[in-house]
């Protein structure tokens, strides 16, 4: 079994790689070649946290995986990571468990790549100003993806705690030292949204983070932060003004997207307004952006088939490059069998 750390994954697997793999994963999903049970979420009410268990199988690549992600917001105050994850990858032809890898960075990458694929098909080609609301760990992957699929000239950051926006500003500058664009910290979310061609919502908010009336015509929105029924980043105005509303998977948003579920419960919105799934657009079954004035919105709650795809590619690349730590559990299993046989023989002798 190969063990891979986040640093090792960073060394060998780029956002460009991830965008290609995530787009292919959506094709497999749309072709009915993935199996993804609904993820199990275990809440930790005392900590305001939760742990997600996410299995999936992709038939064409013969891999299955289980990802476990814990999200503990209070960790930020303790100097610990808010998002922590691990993934077990299994080769589905033999059932051999071939890798265990850090899933925190993997999750940031693939979540960013989902928004990147959505932006590729739904945002205007000339989009160059990106507003990011919520400057936590996931925001880094979102910006990486936007930089790959569009030629940005400016990034606007807004966070309720300004210091988080300042930290992200420094991180992005360090990641892209030769980029000539500007990175500014916005005084409020609405003004940042009004200036944007692309809006990214990456928060755990239970109330909308901006007023949809501030959206310009032609804006594309990626909503990735609210992934539970009680969370809501996007308001009803945004839903009503959006010409195309797309989900990463319809099943996922029907169960988990508070952005939709809350207005549905209130009787102010219906899932009939959902234009389609991202896989339908990637495969050409439905059109992406058709007009420069369209407002488009892609809602993503995440799906484990994406993690399985990305993890399999990381594993294959690591094997090719000789990256990671090999751990062999098989001798231990053999020893256990020998011990069991010896114990059984000893027990039988004692019974005679």
From TrEMBL:
Which Pfam families does the record associate with it? OCD_Mu_crystall
GO MF entry, a single one: oxidoreductase activity
For this protein, the record's Gene3D superfamilies field holds:
NAD(P)-binding Rossmann-like Domain (3.40.50.720), ornithine cyclodeaminase, domain 1 (3.30.1780.10)
Question: What InterPro entries does the database record attribute to this sequence?
Answer: NAD(P)-bd_dom_sf, ODC_Mu_crystall, ODC_N
A biological process (GO) of this protein is:
carboxylic acid metabolic process
According to the UniProt record, one GO cellular component term is: cytoplasm
From which domain of life does this come? Answer: Bacteria
Q: Which residues cross the membrane?
A: none
Indicate the family of this protein. Answer: Belongs to the ornithine cyclodeaminase/mu-crystallin family.
What PANTHER family does the database record attribute to this sequence?
KETIMINE REDUCTASE MU-CRYSTALLIN (PTHR13812:SF19)
Spell out the protein name for this chain: Ornithine cyclodeaminase
Q: Which organism's genome codes for this protein? A: Polycladomyces abyssicola
Classification of source organism: Bacteria, Bacillati, Bacillota, Bacilli, Bacillales
């Amino acid at each position: 079994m190969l063990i891979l750390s986040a640093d090792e994954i960073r060394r060998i697997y780029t956002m460009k790689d991830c965008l290609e793999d995530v787009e292919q994963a959506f094709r497999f999903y749309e072709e009915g070649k993935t199996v993804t049970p609904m993820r199990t979420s275990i809440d930790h009410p005392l900590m305001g946290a939760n742990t997600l268990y996410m299995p999936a199988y992709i038939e064409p690549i013969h891999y299955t995986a289980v990802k476990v992600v814990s999200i503990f917001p209070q960790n930020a105050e303790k100097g610990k990571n808010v998002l922590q994850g691990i993934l077990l990858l299994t080769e589905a032809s033999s059932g051999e468990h071939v890798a265990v890898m850090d899933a925190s960075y993997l999750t940031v990458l693939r979540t960013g790549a989902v928004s990147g694929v959505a932006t590729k098909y739904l945002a205007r080609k000339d989009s160059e100003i990106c507003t990011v609301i919520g400057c936590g760990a996931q925001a880094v992957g979102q910006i990486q993806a936007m930089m790959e699929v569009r030629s940005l000239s400016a990034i606007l950051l807004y966070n309720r705690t300004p210091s988080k926006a300042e930290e992200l500003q420094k991180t992005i500058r360090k990641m892209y030292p030769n980029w000539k664009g500007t990175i500014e910290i916005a005084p409020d979310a609405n003004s940042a949204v009004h200036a944007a061609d692309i809006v990214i919502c990456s928060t755990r908010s239970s109330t909308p983070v901006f007023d949809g009336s501030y959206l310009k015509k032609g804006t594309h929105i990626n909503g990735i932060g609210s992934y539970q029924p009680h969370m809501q980043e996007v308001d009803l105005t945004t839903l009503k003004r959006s010409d195309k509303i797309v989900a990463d998977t319809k099943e996922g948003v029907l169960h988990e997207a508070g952005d939709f579920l809350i207005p549905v419960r209130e009787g102010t919105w219906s899932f009939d307004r959902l234009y389609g799934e991202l896989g339908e657009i990637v495969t050409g079954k439905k059109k992406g952006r058709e007009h420069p004035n369209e407002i488009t919105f892609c809602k993503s709650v995440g799906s484990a088939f994406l993690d399985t795809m990305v993890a399999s590619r990381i594993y294959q690349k690591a094997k090719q490059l000789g990256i990671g730590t090999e751990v062999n559990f098989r001798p231990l299993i053999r020893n256990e069998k020998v011990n069991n046989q010896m114990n059984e023989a000893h027990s039988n002798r004692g019974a005679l």
